[in-house]
Amino acid sequence: MTKKTNAVLVIGACGQLGSELTLELRKLYGDAHVVAADIQYPKQAELRESGPFEIVDVLTPQHLSELATRYKFKQIYHLAAILSATGEKNPKFAWRLNMDGLFNVLDFALEQKVERVYWPSSIAVFGPNTPRQNTPQDTIMDPNTVYGISKQAGERWCEYYFNKYGLDVRSLRYPGLIGYKALPGGGTTDYAVDIYHQALATGTYKCFLSEHTRLPMMYMPDAIKATLDLMHAPAEQVKVRSSYNLAAMSFTPQEIATSIQRHYPSFAITYDPDSRQQIADSWPQSIDDLAARQDWGWRPQYDLDTMTDDMLLHLKRINN
Ligand code: AKB
């Protein structure tokens, strides 16, 4: 059997980021060259129909080796993870999936001589003793969620594989990501996606975080752009080999509601904080991403109001 060469593998392709990133990668490299992989078949027709799809459980290394009989990968995006809120429900499993999954992918990439690997980190690597305003690239990191601990450990391992084995792994510490194409799964920042859906569906939203909880956030087109810009940067410009701080905007539930009210003045928000409040309270309110700006030219394009305008426009179109 002849192998398809120069392929790009996206693991976790059905997730919030994966479903959008896969389609962008297919535009860039050609549909047939970007292999979407996940533990379940995609619900999104465009993702299912536009290119190859493979069932892969990152905890089963044989799934990866089997893929290597059919494809020669030049890049891997390993996005599969259990997020902050879900992780707290089953911490041991979250640790196993987030860590063993990463090891399986890093080892596979080494074995297969993959040129470049992308792995997402998160603002969850920071904790209650981290400075919360303009959190620096290098600072105290004392995460207190299993997700945050796994991301912090993962960052150390990515840097280790780079220093020790020369594997070109690149990473970003995403803030909360907001997009209209797919729903997030099990994060503390998920309210900032749900609120737009509920604004259109019911005109009201009960928020699981309190009114003044400020968190760093980013609109999906900016997250995709940052990811691709980092992956396309010449290796010598990528000076941080753990993970780069990345910022676009910070807002509170009250401020996003006010932004929505510019379109729907009667939109009403209420607050009923749950266990996710404690997680949010341990995270930064704003992020200093100077290193990303200086090293490979990062600049975000969306702020809260331009994101709201775009989200509502697209969601209205999808609903009609
Ligand atoms: C979460 O809320 O768990 C994620 C994240 C900030 O990494 N969105």
UniProtKB/TrEMBL annotation:
This is NAD-dependent epimerase/dehydratase family protein. Residues 8-246 form the NAD-dependent epimerase/dehydratase domain. GO terms for molecular function: L-threonine 3-dehydrogenase activity. Transmembrane segments: none annotated. GO terms for biological process: L-threonine catabolic process. It holds the Pfam family Epimerase. Belongs to the NAD(P)-dependent epimerase/dehydratase family. It comes from Rufibacter glacialis. PANTHER family: L-THREONINE 3-DEHYDROGENASE (PTHR42687), L-THREONINE 3-DEHYDROGENASE, MITOCHONDRIAL (PTHR42687:SF1). InterPro entries: Epimerase_deHydtase (IPR001509), NAD(P)-bd_dom_sf (IPR036291), NAD(P)_epim/dehydratase (IPR051225). The lineage of its organism: Bacteria, Pseudomonadati, Bacteroidota, Cytophagia, Cytophagales.
